[in-house]
Amino acid sequence: MSVELGTVTNAPPDLKIKVDNMKVDLDRDDLVVAQYLTKHKRQVKIDGVTTVELEFQDELKPGDRVIVASTRNVTGLPLRQARRFFFYFFYCI
């Protein structure tokens, strides 16, 4: 596994990431992003009784720096699937 730094160049839903040592941007088909970095809804219980739905609005935006974890040990997959699993996790820094 390797870890690289990158920069968000385009916001979701057409997310693109420029990894510092790569010449091309990664697009949304190449990425799997942790849910907490996207707009999403969660159900929570208040006082163990009332269930409410919260919508989290924060998401990646152009200029955000991210950590990209990748693995090169993908074998036996078609190229597009291999690329999809090559860059698989992001964290805001």
Describe what this molecule looks like in 3D.
The protein has 93 residues and is mainly beta. It has one domain (2-64, 75-92). The chain has one helix and seven strands, in the order E-E-E-E-E-E-H-E. It has one helix at 79-86; strands at residues 2-10, 16-19, 25-27, 40-46, 50-56, 65-70, 87-92. Strands 3-2-1-6-7 form a five-stranded antiparallel sheet.
Give a short summary of the structure.
With 93 residues, the chain is mainly β. It is 9% helix and 45% strand.
Write the layout of secondary structure elements.
Layout (H helix, E strand, L loop, with lengths): L1 E9 L5 E4 L5 E3 L12 E7 L3 E7 L8 E6 L8 H8 E6 L1
Antiparallel strand pairs: 1-2, 1-6, 2-3, 4-5, 6-7
Following the backbone from N to C, one meets helices and strands in this order, namely EEEEEEHE
Q: What fraction strand?
A: over 45%
Strand order in the sheet with the most strands: 3-2-1-6-7
- The number of helical runs is 1
* Total DSSP E strands: 7
Shape: elongated
Helix content: under 10%
- Given helix and strand content, the structural type is mainly beta
Number of discrete domains:
1
Largest sheet: 5 strands, antiparallel
Uncertain spans:
76-89
Main features:
mainly beta, 1 helix, 93 residues, single chain, elongated, two-stranded antiparallel sheet, 45% strand, 5-stranded antiparallel beta sheet
